[in-house]
Structures are given as C-alpha cells and as structure tokens.
Amino acid sequence: MRKQTKTDANQDVAGRGMQKPGKADANPAVLGGSLRKQTGAGTNPGVPGEGVQKQRGAKPDVSIVMPNYNSPVVDKSIEAIMAQSFNGSFEIIVVGMDSLNLIKPNKKLKFVRTREKTVPSKARNIGIGKAMAGTIVFVDSDCIPERKWLEALMGNRAKIVTGAVEFEAGNFWTTCDNFIHFHASNRKRKAGEIPLFGTMQLKIPKKKLAATGLFDEKLETGEDLDLALRLKEAGERFFFEPKAVVKHLPERKSLGSVLRHSAYWARDSMKVRLKHKTMPGLLKNRWLALALSPFAALWVTIGIYSRPYNLGYIHLLPVVWLAKLSWFYGAFRGLKNA
Prior knowledge:
Blueprint: E1 6-7, E2 12-13, H1 35-39, E3 62-69, H2 74-82, E4 90-97, E5 109-113, H3 120-130, E6 135-139, E7 143-145, H4 149-155, E8 161-166, H5 172-182, E9 192-194, E10 201-205, H6 206-212, H7 223-233, E11 238-248, H8 255-276, H9 286-291, H10 293-305, H11 317-337
Parallel strand pairs: 3-4, 3-6, 4-5, 8-11
Antiparallel strand pairs: 1-2, 6-10, 7-11, 8-10, 9-11
Helix pairs in contact: 5-8, 7-8, 8-11, 10-11
C-alpha cells in the first residue's frame, strides 16, 4: 500500500495507502445489521481464525481488517498474522487491489477485491461492514506483526489500543521515515495513555466505530487523525501497548521520498485540524509559519529527542529536522488550499 500515513505534527496523520476513490465489488455492510442477514444463513458463515470453534459459523473473537493497494509484502503480512500466538479465533479481511496476486483467500482469509484504487478510509469501512466480530483490529499491508502482536493487543484491557513500530526495517531511509513519523510509537516507550493514534495498527470495538460514524471517505489521508479527534471529542481514551509490535516496510529509498512523505502528511492534516479547530497557534498564520519554519522545525525536533526512549536515534537528527521543515512547508500548502 503505497504512500502510507499515521499521526504527527508530533505524529500527525496515520493513514495508509493514499489512493483515489473507486468502486468496490461489494458495498460495505450496514454495521447495525447482522452478517448472517447480509450473506444468508448457512452460506459462508464466517472466516474463523486460529481458535477453537465448536459450532459452524461461530463468530470469531476479532476481525482483522487490512486495506491494500498492491503491497509487495502483503503476503508476508498475512503469513505473520496466521502465525500469531493468540489463542482466540480471528478472521482476516483484506480490501483493495492485488496486482501481484500475493493474496490467497482461504477459510480464514477473505479478500474483497476492488475494481479501482480505493482510499484507505473506504477500504477500512468496507472491511468493517464485512467483519463478524465485535472487536476490530486494523493493520496495514506493509506491516509485519511480531508473533505476540495480536495477543498483546487483545490482552490489553483498554478498549482502544495501538502498538509499537520497529523502526529498523529495511534500508537507512526506511528507518528514517519510520522514526520521523512514528517516534511516538517507539517500542521502548512505556505502556500508558496517549493523546492520539494512527490506524497502522489499532484495536477498537466495532460499536464505537459505528457510534462515531466510521471513517470519512472524503479524506485521502488523515482519516485516522479525524477518527481519533472525533472519538476524543466523544470522551474516549486511547492507550499504547509496547508489546504489540509491527515491523513497518514502506517504500522509502531516498531522502526525497522521506521529505515528500512528511509534506504530504502535513498538507492533508490541515483540513482535519481546521475541521476540528485543533490548529497549532503558529499555523493560524500560514505566512508566519513559513517564515519561522526553520526554528519551529528545530523546536519540534528537540521535543522528539527530549524523550529518553528516542535518544537511540540521535544520529538521525539532521534528517529529522529536514523532514519537520518539509512538514511545515506541506502545512503551508495545505492551509492555502483548505
């Protein structure tokens, strides 16, 4: 899934695979309805996971929803999920396109193929509609979960839980991109409450998604920031579980690709920030923000390294500062078009 995104202005937008809207082969199911009514009783009753299911068609404990746009590692992601240590039952629902034919549906895995590129928000909504379980876990198709990932997410008693990112995944620029955009998800960070989340990986009750109105399909990126802010306005709390770890493998092969990613995140997050009236003070005047961006980028960079668990990546500081500078330029452009 290309050009992925997750939450940052300190971790502003956690969205994935920026794709243009398209028609899906199947419309998302109505959340309030029964999956049995949608599919017909006794026909394809479910996609069971690894747990014990004594009754045919029994609902799984969790539905794992994965948006995908031709990810070259989606098969590895699926294999890692299939090998989870979680003792309960689960189903996997992948929604999107697979030009490489890496997805092999089976009784545990459902693939909802779309005819055209589909924004992550719409792909996730389709997956939610198809989900049988009362608990949804989102994961991106360029993420390789560690074996105890699902066990850790489901074992955390909090309702809305996100996990950690392994930054060392691939080449130097991939490591830079992961740290820059997901430093708040450092696996060395202690478990506890957090202000926002991204949907690279997230556990959340289906009923809370329904009550909030699902993802805004008009947003190409920033859909997870929008969802987090709506949930926060409704009084929900979010928690971080460092034992739930994924290795993130975005396609970043140059400094330019890292800087463009940062600017892209910022540009689209401005629409969401304006919508929810959570714009940082400096950005209320976009020309002032642009003029002060070198100093503001340095201030944000210092803030990142003020957290002891991030000091192991101090050697990336020049790239972090450049990426934050690019972020402010992206925000400047986003405010212009908002």
